[in-house]
Specification:
single chain; 358 residues; alpha/beta; TIM Barrel; OB fold (Dihydrolipoamide Acetyltransferase, E2P); 2 domains; 6-stranded mixed β-sheet; 5-stranded mixed β-barrel; 15 strands; binds iron/sulfur cluster
Amino acid sequence: MTGVTWRDGVDEIERRRKIISVGVDVPQVGVLAFGLVDRGTNIIEVRPTTLCPLSCIYCSVNAGPRSTNRWAEFIDTPEALLPALEEVVRFKGVNDVEVHIDGMGEPGIYPYLVKLVRGAKAISGVSRVSMQTRLYMLSDDTLRELAQAGLDRINLSIDSLNPELAKRISGAPWYDINRVKELVARALELGINVIASPVWLPGINDDDIINIIKWAGENGLGRGELPPVLIQKYIPHKRGRRVRMRIMSWQGFWRRIKDMELELGVRLTATNDELNVHRAPQLPRPYKLGDNVKVRVISRGIIKGEFLGVILPLRNSAIYDRVITVIAGPHMEKILIGNQVKVRVIENNDNIYIGRLI
Ligand code: SF4
């Protein structure tokens, strides 16, 4: 059970799992847990930490104190992230890159968040810095510093305005939705745009979604540039926490969104043009499916039984150097970490590498 503040949630995780700091010697592309993810658009995902003090009932990445499958957590360093980000932005060759800070944890508790935002915004070619967060963990002072550092937009994870249901969905008894509302007002005053991105859990927060739309519209979220709310469909993930419910079809979901737009007179969808998302050169994939590669195993991976490896030889370039998740088994920890092994690449979607020991 979590304690009385969000820090107790993080302390609990630190007692139970290995916390791994990622330094400049580790490539920044190749895993979902930290570093950079490039999906071939002008948006680069920056993933600073896997730590999260909440335990949302639907969490697709099974984060937080109540995680059942993690055995390590990662905290990346700005010294590793920022130079790699600069290289990838240069590689893309466009002048409207959006750096989106998110990941398998809650970026709001990342200790170097202001430094990361300031560094990202200073990179030539970056036009916008945005962040996905529950916001609750940020103080007024940190928000002010983030605004000064150049944070443009917060995508707010929020699933209910009802204090009790909000605590239940977030799995965190200390989570206070009224404090979140105060922080939203503060962010907007400071010039940071905010859009709400609730996850719709049919049968659990139907009325709450309507209330969030009304509240967001009345309080100026989206600032007239974007819809105040972009609703997320709940999708159960193999390794995520699951909520027992009837899963809506995509067709049914979009039909309900259109109905709500008409009923409430609020736009709830945005085009790629409005969001300024477009194709942009994607990083090369240096290793193909089925390739056998030499890997130095450096630590546990995030999920129990997985390990983190560096594919050798390194070229000292974020464009080509990759980390890889090596699937083995928890009993292999003492044998693997610190050693070189041969691995077969079994997945490389969007440069996220998974391999098996040969
Ligand atoms: S959904 Fe986000 S805030 Fe909730 S437990 Fe997962 S990572 Fe944390």
